[in-house]
What does this fold into?
Amino acid sequence: MSETLNTKRAKKLAKGPFGGVGHALNEIDDRLGAAKGGRTFLDKIFPDHWSFMLGEIALYSFVILLVTGIFLALYYIPSTAIVTYHGTYMPLYGQKMTEAYASSVNLSFAVRGGLLMRQMHHWACDIFVGALVVHMARVFFTGAFRKPRELNWTIGTTLMTLAIVNGFLGYSLPDDLVSGTGIRIAYSILLSLPVVGSYLAFWIFGGNFPGTMVIPRFFVLHEFIVPLLILGLVGAHLALLVRQKHTQFPGPGKTEENVVGTPMFPVFMAKTTGFLLIVGGVTAALGAFAQINPIWQFGQYHASNISYAVQPDWYMGFLDGALRIWPSWTFHSFGHTIAFETLVPALILPGLVFNLAYAWPALERKFTGDNAIHHLLDRPSDRAVRTSVGVATLSFLMMLFIASSTDVIANFFHISLNTVLWAMRILVVLVPLIAYPLSYKICKEMQSFKGAGKRKTTNVVTRTAEGEYVATASPRYVDDVPSHLAPIPVPKFITELDSVKNVDEGNGTRVVDR
Amino acid sequence: MSNNHETNTPVSLRGLSADDPHLQPAARKPARVEKVISISFVFAIIFGVLFIAAFVQNWQPYILGGSLAGSLLLLGIGLVAWGKYLMPRGPFVEDRHEFRSSDEDRAAFAAAIIQRGGGVVKRRKVITGLFAGGMGVFSLGALFPLLRSLGPLPKGTLFHTDWRKDAYAVDITGRRVLVSDLAIGSIITVYPEGKQDSENGQAVDQTVLIRISNQDFTTMKGRESWGPQGLLAYSKLCTHLGCPVGLYEQQMQLLVCPCHQSMFNVNNGAVPQFGPAPRPLPQLPIYIDADGYIRAQSDYHEPVGPGFWERS
It folds into this structure.
């Protein structure tokens, strides 16, 4: 008896049907009670739709930012002390420069893999903010921000602002000519704030521009405080996503009460890990083959030097464009100056845009009276007003973005700067004014076309034994929207409040046959 | 057709038998897909080895990055294909659960806060108020020195530059500028002597010196002595956002800011002609001494650079 217990086979059997791993899991469960929750987690269903991937791009480019950022932080020196460059890049040899600039050039040329890491970091940042914009647009146009997900929309909007701020801070760190100009502009924007402006600018910069404190302080903000905030909010964003479960588009078998898709383990895990690697691969390819921000060409920042065609990173473009086309209106009176020429385009305008984003879920609830829980997404065309507001806002920002390159446009097309300036001033107002009714009309057209997006089914014709021909409709295609989810009157948002009330006793829910 | 329809109906993972068609791979020919994925992983390994070699040998960044990209992309594509074609095809469904708690739980939660907590607070109004006051004073106290210790108060800093009466104008290398150094149509950036090396001096004191003629030139009434022998000195800080006004358009006599394209007319006191700048560039009163050096009559008569609240 004791002999049989000592055989390998007996030992294996003693561990239960799932072997050593199963045994280890049991040991963990004895202590933490993790099996039940763990199974629920592995069974968690993720809906399949390409547009749900946009947020993943943002998440994974943030992961790349963290990894490459740690690498850069090992070599970058946040100091404005003046040193003489004795590195490997000959055109700058012997020049006096700040340690910040010297270490940025050094980590590009002298550190193995440094240039690749720096370019990947910069590209990942541009991709990060871009993915955030597209992800935010997806959430907006499909109504994914509606109750119960308003809090996650708020977190997301905050993440967007933090990403832009941190992008600017990081862009400032190399202390090259272009980044220094950006810091100078940021300082002047701070100055423009009424009453507190000069105090705030002096405190943040530790004195008058440029001082010696701005680089070390921006470094602490860029690589510690803001990333920590972003990390915490990303965690909260994902925790809420897990708690509230994913939204899904209407489709066969999909209702407000369920989630249809692929399970966390192994399918989603494999796909999403693969996608992390793909995002990393694309960023590496960009970092390897597409030069970005060649600081060694710009040279050290000197407050009295400047280069032509100074443009910030793309996500700051709308601010720069607004600063260019806003007229030179200023206010001098009662012994004070209010720099409206800076205040309005650089602070009030982005303030309005972001506060509109924050307020949107509440505004929509108020104007539609729709206070119901929503898990099924909207087709953008079903919500004409929301979609048109979104298109108009995006086109407005797009025009401001284009306005940030007035000088380049004028040069490239050989037209006068004055013409370009006035064209952009007009377009910034005109394009959103055209975009709104145009998208509203397109949405209405799409709504009125019954069965839009459905495929026709064939009739199967059979001949009976008596010779009679009988036509029967073949089964519906599996991906077609089932009849109980076919387009039916939905609340028309702000415009047709009365008809909303008629739909479902005033709470304006989409009527779904359950 | 109906069979296909059936297997496409979402099912729950719970209690699904191991041979359920939903757990079959999505690919019709899994063996072939597996072969493709294997090839992709093999090349990923090759690229990975190349990446290590590039790192060890310190090859060009594009080889290093290219091999890293190839390795990551092929691993990623293979893994996504594995998940998409060789893993349980589904679709699966799970139920959502209402977030709303039961009425009893809601009432008990609210009661705990309002009755238990509120009772304690309401009955002790004096110490509640004192505690709130204490925390408030502490927060203000904590906030204020934190902000205040970050930097000095602006005081008069923004109103003055380092230009003083009789200060020599020097170029970036510290050489005193002679009137004979400047031909008609030429432009140079100057600083008050001794400040050309300091970043703060450069940022605030930077001044452009332009020679537009041989004759004494008056840009504005009251500035009759400011332009000796056609030499005009303007602050180089754009009055919009403080970029250096670095471009000189000689034919139009314009100073142009490259940041937001403000243009200032040199001849009539640098009044902005175009763009978002709200004010003319301040002009520095200068004179030419007996040795031909260019020197300042005084500091600027108004603050240089962008606008701020305390500026009148």
About this structure: The mean pLDDT of chain A is 88. Chain A touches chain B through 109 residues (CB under 8 Å).
